[in-house]
Design brief:
Distance between the termini of chain B: 42 Å
Order of helices and strands of chain A: HHHHHHHHHHHH
Helix content of chain A: over 70%
Distance between the termini of chain A: 15 Å
Structural class of chain B: alpha/beta
Oligomer: heterodimer
Order of helices and strands of chain B: EEEEEHEEEHHHEHEHEEHH
Strand content of chain A: under 5%
Shape of chain B: globular
Number of helices of chain B: 8
Chain lengths: ~300, ~280
């Protein structure tokens, strides 16, 4: 799964190295003395990457000051930081962040509730998948932004239309990955479970769900990111709060320092969310990454 | 006392559209894998099934395990017709089939869990069976952290934890290296001697078949039937040295005699029906 790895995953040193025993020295294990080393984060790509970030920020600081860029459109980095501090102190930044996150979270949660059961059915029953697939593919390839006017017409300008667009932005990632995960469940495990008298309900709960978790979680990561992107876009187009609104409105008011403060907040929020998701993915699939043997 | 009675069991598979095999000179889209198998298995007996590839050994095991329906004939377990997996039957697969997201302990608990055995009792029983295979210190490990031999021990512990009356084993040691295989064979015999379980064990290895069995059932090439049943009257308990005895060698000769023609036939069959390979 190519999308399991992520640019940030490398930069931030989340690629942990497991140095515990490999299969060839199993025989040398003394029972009871199994040493399990803690995953160690590889930080070299972090400190190797920092100089370039620093250079970028220095350039941002001096370019407007030296007149290379128009300081009205492109204020120095330090002024952006001051604006960021002022927005944070005034409490407006917190309000906007909360507004955006709430919308993204509501839409994403709704997508989870819809996509996972639907994905189970489509992955497990090929007849049902054949019936639903064409519609899913059609909807999936319709841009959520193109549908924003539709959502606004149907649901009004308030929260509901934003939640709808974040739902739409994440539901297909979750759905497709749930289907993929369910289809990829090793039939031998299903056979083994059946031989032990597993009921249909237990088959879903105890075999198919855990077996497809890695794929579902990978889909969830893409879905969360897509939700955040969608909510910012929607807020830029039609909203009275949220980070997207802050950025767009600051630009209209020519408060460019505030605009960059909003953009910077968005970047930091994106980084934080990705950290969290990578961490969550590692936890949810720990049995996979701790594997010593090659399979 | 007869525990399992297999009567005239047949199994045919429908080939994919466009695929044909030649059977008795005519083309057909149905592949006959088992063609009238009769077999009586006594309570507590250790049966090994040998036969060339494609002779339907695994399919027969699936039918006895209630995982596949026979196309004809019937299998009785203690007088009851088998049509679905029986709670008193356990299965061990060649590829272990452990749940990779569950620890060794939790894997052994699984069968008890889906049967509603209370948490404390199933953990206790699972621990006991892991200890039996010397895996007590590995109970928290995930299958991916265990060697092949250890994984198969966990799988056998899982199968035995539900106190089965019948244990079906489909080439359980075929994926292991030769040394591990021999160790597991004698561990299995030791544990089997203490429980009252009937074992049906599919293998490709003549030595393994003889070493383990009370009776070796030799299957014909496809379509599979029972060609010969050979009593193995070697004394128990058996240790590894028995393999070099004169009696063992005589059995080896006899099983190979029964098997040789079938293996030759099977090789021709496989060359002629590419449909079966895909």
């Amino acid at each position: 799964m190519a999308y399991l790895t992520d640019k940030l995953g490398h930069i931030t040193g989340f690629n942990t190295l497991f140095t515990s025993a490999n299969p060839s020295n199993h025989s040398s294990h003394i029972p009871g003395s199994v040493v399990r080393k803690k995953p160690r984060a590889d930080l070299s790509s972090l400190y190797l990457g920092l100089p370039l970030i620093a250079a970028f920020l220095v350039l941002w600081e001096i370019a407007p000051r030296l007149g290379w860029l128009n300081a009205i459109f492109f204020p120095p980095f330090s002024e952006v930081l001051v604006a960021l501090r002022d927005l944070a102190v005034a409490g407006t930044l917190g309000t906007h962040i909360l507004a955006s996150l709430q919308r993204a979270a509501a839409g994403f949660a709704l997508a989870v509730v819809v996509a996972i059961p639907l994905g189970f059915l489509m992955g497990r029953y090929s007849r049902f998948e054949k019936c639903a697939d064409l519609l899913v593919q059609t909807l999936r390839n319709t841009s959520q932004f193109a549908l924003l006017p539709v959502f606004i017409l149907l649901l009004g300008i308030g929260e509901a239309s934003k939640i709808a667009i974040t739902f739409y932005a994440s539901v297909f990632f979750l759905l497709i990955n749930t289907i993929t995960g369910v289809k990829a469940v090793d039939p031998l495990l299903v056979k083994a479970a059946r031989s032990m008298g597993t009921s249909d309900l237990d088959m879903f709960r105890k075999v198919i769900l855990p077996a497809s978790i890695p794929s579902i979680v990978a889909g969830a990561r893409l879905g969360v990111k897509s939700s955040v992107v969608a909510v910012i876009g929607a807020e830029m187009l039609a909203a009275k709060s949220g980070l997207g609104y802050l950025i767009q409105n600051s630009q209209l008011m020519m408060q460019t320092a505030d605009m960059y403060a909003g953009i910077l907040t968005l970047t930091l929020m994106g980084l934080a969310i990705n950290y969290l998701l990578v961490w969550f993915e590692k936890r949810a699939t720990s049995w996979k990454s701790q594997s010593n043997t090659g399979f | 006392m007869e525990r399992i009675v297999v009567s005239d069991v047949r199994k045919t598979f429908q080939l994919k559209p466009g695929q044909y095999v030649t059977e008795e000179g005519r083309e057909t889209s149905e592949l006959t894998v088992l063609n009238g198998v009769d077999l009586n298995i006594r309570k507590g007996e250790f049966i090994t099934l040998v036969g060339p590839s494609g002779s339907g050994k695994s399919v027969l095991l699936d039918i006895i395990g209630g995982l596949t329906q026979a196309s004809g004939g019937v299998v009785h377990l203690d007088g009851e017709k088998i049509s679905k997996p029986d709670p008193n039957t356990s299965y061990v697969f060649q590829q272990y089939a452990l749940f990779p997201w569950r620890s060794a302990l939790s894997n052994v608990e699984y069968g008890l869990e889906v049967r509603g055995v209370p948490k404390r009792e199933r953990t206790e029983r699972a621990r006991r069976f892991l200890s039996l295979f010397g895996l007590r210190d590995f109970e928290d490990r995930f299958p991916g952290q265990l060697s092949g031999g250890m994984q198969q021990r966990v799988a056998i512990a899982r199968a035995l934890a539900s106190n089965p009356e019948v244990l079906l084993m489909d080439e359980p040691f075929a994926a292991l290296d030769a040394q591990t295989r021999e160790i597991l064979q004698s561990e299995l015999l030791k544990i089997w001697a203490e429980i009252d379980t009937t074992v049906i064990f599919v293998t490709h290895s003549i030595d393994e078949a003889i070493y383990l069995a009370d009776r070796v059932v030799v299957m014909t090439a496809r379509p599979g039937t029972v060609k010969e049943i050979i009593d193995i009257d070697l004394p128990r308990p058996r240790d590894g040295d028995i393999r070099s005895s004169i009696e063992f060698n005589a059995h080896r000769q006899r099983v190979w005699e029964a098997l040789r023609d079938e293996v030759n036939k099977a090789q021709k069959d496989w060359a002629l029906s590419p449909a079966f390979n895909s």
